[in-house]
Amino acid sequence: MAKGKDVRVTVILECTSCVRNKVNGVARGISRYITQKNRHNTPNRLELRKFCPYCYEYTIHGEIKK
């Protein structure tokens, strides 16, 4: 049986440059990735460099709340 506090949790990574660089207040789109992290090894928010199809480059994707 699964316990209440799982060690591995599912997190959503969102492109930080897409959120900041809105064109006329409306974003073209926001790149998001779903991954897992170990809560014991990485207690802080996760940040990874991933490819953003809207920016056409590798950018920092940060963890957001669900």
Automatic annotation (TrEMBL):
Pfam families: Ribosomal_L33 (PF00471)
Gene Ontology biological process terms from the UniProt entry: translation
Keywords per UniProt: Chloroplast, Plastid, Ribonucleoprotein, Ribosomal protein
SUPFAM superfamilies: Zn-binding ribosomal proteins (SSF57829)
Keyword DNA damage: no
GO cellular component term of the entry, any: ribosome
Locations listed in the record: Plastid, Chloroplast
One Gene Ontology molecular-function label: structural constituent of ribosome
Principal subcellular localisation of the protein: plastid
UniProt-listed InterPro entries: Ribosomal_bL33 (IPR001705), Ribosomal_bL33_CS (IPR018264), Ribosomal_bL33_sf (IPR038584), Ribosomal_zn-bd (IPR011332)
Superkingdom of origin: Eukaryota
Sequence similarity: Belongs to the bacterial ribosomal protein bL33 family.
PANTHER family found in the cross-reference section: 50S RIBOSOMAL PROTEIN L33, CHLOROPLASTIC, LARGE RIBOSOMAL SUBUNIT PROTEIN BL33C
Protein name from the UniProt record: Large ribosomal subunit protein bL33c
Lineage, highest ranks first: Eukaryota, Viridiplantae, Streptophyta, Embryophyta, Tracheophyta
Gene: rpl33
